[in-house]
Amino acid sequence: LDVSVQAQVLNLLAELKAQFGLTYVFISHDLSVVQAVSDRVAVMYFGRVVEQAPGRALFEKPQHPYTRLLLDSAPVPGKRGLTVEDASAELPDPLAPPPGCAFAPRCPRAQDDCVATVPDAQYGLDNHDAACLHPLNPVTRS
Fold it and tell me: Is 128 exposed, middle or buried (0-12, 13-18, 19+ CB in 10 A)?
């Protein structure tokens, strides 16, 4: 959709949400739109949720390295240049995913345990969960 039609559709969804108390599942690759319309965000990699959190928390302080990569790669008005992934990083074969964490071959934080173990969601503060053995901004419950 062009920008003006997209804005009209998003405004209509917001009006219907407020008027009828609706909840939406909104799926998009456009992070700026996701940030604008979502109360809670889930990031998926290879068919698994790798991070989920309230929208503001996820965009301000991502826990999973893949989420950070997505945010750094998204074009933002006024932002100079994009952070690009190391050219040597290869996408794994979706029909034969690697053992352990599927993101490990591309992850700058990967360690031996990442290849050996599929990480479960680590529950942090304020319902900010990340399926990562070595999260970027680790938080724990008191």
Answer: buried
Report yes or no: 74 and 32 within 8 Å, Cβ to Cβ. Answer: yes
Q: Which two tokens stand for residue 119?
A: 């990480």
pLDDT band with cut points at 50, 70 and 90 for residue 142:
very low
3-class secondary-structure state, position 140: coil
Angle (nearest 5°) at CA 86 between 108 and 111: 20
CA atoms within 13 A on the CB side of 115: 7
Query: Do the beta carbons of residue 133 and residue 51 sit within 8 Å?
Result: no
Torsions phi, psi of 19, nearest 5? Answer: -70, -40
45, 103 contact by CB (below 8 A): yes
Cα separation, 128 vs 123, whole angstroms: 6
**For 71-128, what is each residue's pLDDT tens digit?**
988 776 666 655 555 555 677 788 888 899 999 998 999 999 999 999 988 777 678 9
Mean confidence (pLDDT) of the chain: 85
Amino acid found at 16:
L
